[in-house]
Design a protein that fits this description.
6-stranded mixed beta sheet, Thymidylate Synthase, Chain A, about 280 residues, alpha+beta, about 20% strand, globular, single chain
Length: about 280
């Protein structure tokens, strides 16, 4: 089978899904890699199943590299799960208000890499222009997650549900992010959408034009799963699936296959159905 066909990886364990992604990228040339779809399906009370041996091994490797962060740190840029739990799992509006007033300023002060925002900040304080009937366009801010919850509740109270295409959240901002630079760094995640079915199940769908598999992907998947758990709680749904589309997966910066070999061997030893990896 040609190795430039789109690859679909589905696993009930987040760590195993990420592990298969890593092995896939290691085994294929970057020039021949095609779009990748990663689907995680195993959740208990809204939280993804993980293999902590794999996660610990990845994090141990990341801390040996400059300007790389643990999966937990990467995840909190998409959704600060631990902070949400400490705050008593507040509803979307109350939590996002606290995040913008108290938590996000501290993140920016702590690390200059957050100077252009975080993914969660873009979701809950996206800026854009809107033209009124008379006069010039006006710059406005939009809490996209709060908006989704509002229209969800409005339509549910009327006995219906909002159209699926309405449940979208933008992260990429052309005004800020079309810079022409060779390496932007942020944002890699472009867009998130939410899907639901008649069984009151919720899925999160995310789009990455490119994704660093070692540097960021595990934390990306973890943060997106936390975001799904957060939204499902206010929507009264069960979060059951993460779908992540990656246009071009890449190992990441400052990494080579030789130093990744021990991690790859560990993954192979812990994956089910090892014969096909």
């Amino acid at each position: 089978m040609p190795n430039n066909l789109p690859q679909v990886i589905e696993e009930p364990n987040l760590s195993h899904a990420w592990g298969r992604v890593l092995l896939h990228v290691l085994d294929n040339s970057k020039r021949k890699l095609a779009p990748l779809v990663v689907s995680v399906t195993g959740f208990t009370d809204g939280l993804a199943a993980e293999d902590m041996e794999i996660r610990k091994a990845l994090d141990a490797l990341l801390v040996t590299k400059d300007r790389k962060f643990s999966s937990k740190v990467t995840a909190l840029t998409i959704f600060p799960y631990d902070a949400w739990v400490r705050r008593g799992r507040l509803p979307v509006r109350e939590f996002t208000d606290w995040y913008l007033k108290d938590f996000f300023p501290r993140l920016q002060a702590r690390n200059k890499l957050n100077g252009r925002g975080t993914y969660f900040e873009r979701m809950v304080r996206f800026q854009g222009s809107k033209k009124p009937k008379n006069g010039p366009p006006q710059i406005r801010e939009k809490n996209q997650l709060d908006h989704l919850i509002s229209i969800w509740r409005r339509d549910r109270e009327k006995g219906g549900s909002p159209r699926h295409s309405a449940l979208q959240v933008s992260v990429f901002d052309p005004v800020q992010d079309h810079t022409g630079g060779k390496l932007l760094g942020f944002p890699c995640l472009q867009q998130v959408s939410f899907s639901y079915d008649e069984a009151d199940q919720l899925a999160v769908n995310a789009y990455y034009p490119t994704q660093y598999v070692v540097d960021r992907a595990y934390g990306n998947y973890l943060g997106l799963c936390h975001l799904g758990h957060f939204m499902a709680r206010d929507m009264g749904l069960n979060f059951v699936r993460l779908n992540c589309f990656v246009g071009l997966p890449d190992l990441g910066s400052d990494l080579n296959k030789e130093e990744l070999a021990p991690l790859a061997d560990l993954i192979r030893s812990r994956l089910p159905n090892r014969d096909d990896v």
